Structures are given as C-alpha cells and as structure tokens.
Amino acid sequence: MALQHAALLDTVCLEARGAEAAGFLHAQLSRAVADLDPTTAPLAAWADPRGRVRALLRVCQLPDRWLLITPRDGADDLLKKLRMFVLRSKVTLTHATDVHVTALLGADDAWFAAHDVSVDDTPPNRLVRHDDVTFVRIGPSYWQALGAPAALVSLTAGLAKGSASDAALAEISLGIPAIVPALAERFVAQMLNLDELDAVSFDKGCYPGQEIIARVHNLGGVKRRTRRYAAPTEPPPLAAAVLAADTQVGEVVRSAAARSGCELLAVVDHAAAGSPLTCASAPLTELPLPFKVPRD
C-alpha cells in the first residue's frame, strides 16, 4: 500500500513539564517512566484504585517536555483529574496546543529514508526525531507524526490522503483500544490486553491500581479479554453488547468502518470466545491479533 496520511483530529497531545515531571508520571502511570529510554514511546494506563483504566496514553519524551497522546474526547477531564495529584510536585500539566498528530499509513522506504527515518531498525513503540517532527512507530505499516500544523502539512505534501478511520483500523489490527469517558473505569488493564501491549511494568513501584493489576498478573483472575472481530455492518457504538445466543458475553471497546462492514475490539468472556457471537444482530468473525490472547 502506498504511503497515505490522515490528520487525527480526534487525538490530542497533553504535556508535562518541570523538574519532577518524570517522577510524577512514573508514580501515576502503569508503565515505568523514570528511566525510560528517550527513543521509547510506550503505551501506559492511568488507573483508579480498583485497577480499572481511566485513560490510555502514549508517552513520548522530548528534550523539553513529555507528550501524552490520548483521545480528544475526555482529555479536558483527564487533565483536571491528573492535576489533583500534582500537589507540591514541580510539574505543570497542560494541552500541548502546538503539537498535532498525523497518521502515516503504508510502506514507502524511500520516503522515510528521505526524512532520515529508519523503517527497518525502528521497532514499534519507538520514536525518531527529525527537525520539527517526531515520528512514532505504532506498527509495521503505521506511524504517527507529531509536530506543528505547518510542519505536518509540509511533511505530507504529495502524499495520498487517507482517513482517520484507516488509522483506527490499523490500531484495531494491533489490538490497541482507545479509552474515552464512555469506557473509563470499566476494565482492569489485563481485560484490555495492556500487559500484552507492553503498557504495564510489573517491576516498578506503586501507582494507582497497582495492587489489583499485580494481583491479576500473579494469581490470574480476569475472566474476559479483548479480542478482534469483523462484522458485515456499520461500526457499532461503544459498549454495544456482544451476544452468545441471547446472553450478553462482552461489549465493544472500539470499532471502525472497513472496506466491507467494520472491524471492532470487544472485551469477551473466555467461556464464550469460541461460540457463535453477534453484535447489533450481525454475526462476528474473530480476526487475529499480533499476540495470543491469554486465558487467565
């Protein structure tokens, strides 16, 4: 597929600045941050004391600040709640209004080489900085470019135009959910496969929900996990019921239109995963993820 670009208007960057920004994020997020390699851009959850995910962020360390990439829906409330935990810490949390996010979809080694981005040596969850733009590799054929609007327009000049739905499909294929207010505080990290997505560090210190998330890791206990499906319909709404016969066995956590029908991520009971499933009266066909879904 030729390289395409799509402005992700439903995605924003928050920023953390200050001498204690790294320590603050380390104490709040499920992923270790204090000693993070500056070229690593992992996913991280912010959980409540019950281990239920309030937000999912991609963490990027820049020379002058930390960027937290997250859905626009709920970002204002997320900032307000995070600020409640700053207390006397030397950290400032705001919107990074100067940074927009553009998806780069497809494979074009020559284009990336021209921008000094190594597509061969950069694994997922890594970033490369070049001039005024930061490139974050999300998956094999999916990058996000972070920068000022003018820089991104210049960067993508001449590229074919894709859509935000294409970017959502790329993330769904990787098993990456998007936590917005309708889904906040409903799922423990493992239900969203965040342990498989390297969004949880099990050897770091305390953070909100750490005890519950660690207990699930050490003892098991979640009876449902996120799986990927295709359906021959329009994308169902968030939290739409997944049914086995007439019994609800799961709920949708992300969906996007595909060339034929849609694809979606749904948290589904292990016991029902092998059964015929429907959503919005349409049959679901399970699709693979880049990892095997654990059965705790």
Question: Can you walk me through this structure?
Answer:
- A hairpin with a 2-residue loop joins strand 13 (241-244) and strand 14.
- 17% of the residues lie in helices and 33% in strands.
- The chain is an alpha+beta fold and 296 residues long.
- The chain starts with a strand and ends in a 9-residue tail after the last strand.
- Strands 17-16-13-14-15-12-18 form a 7-stranded antiparallel β-sheet. The protein has a 6-stranded mixed β-sheet with strand order 8-9-10-7-1-11.
- The mean pLDDT is 95.
List keywords for this structure.
single chain, 296 residues, globular
Overview in brief:
The protein contains six helices and 18 strands. By secondary structure, it is α+β, with helices and mostly antiparallel strands.
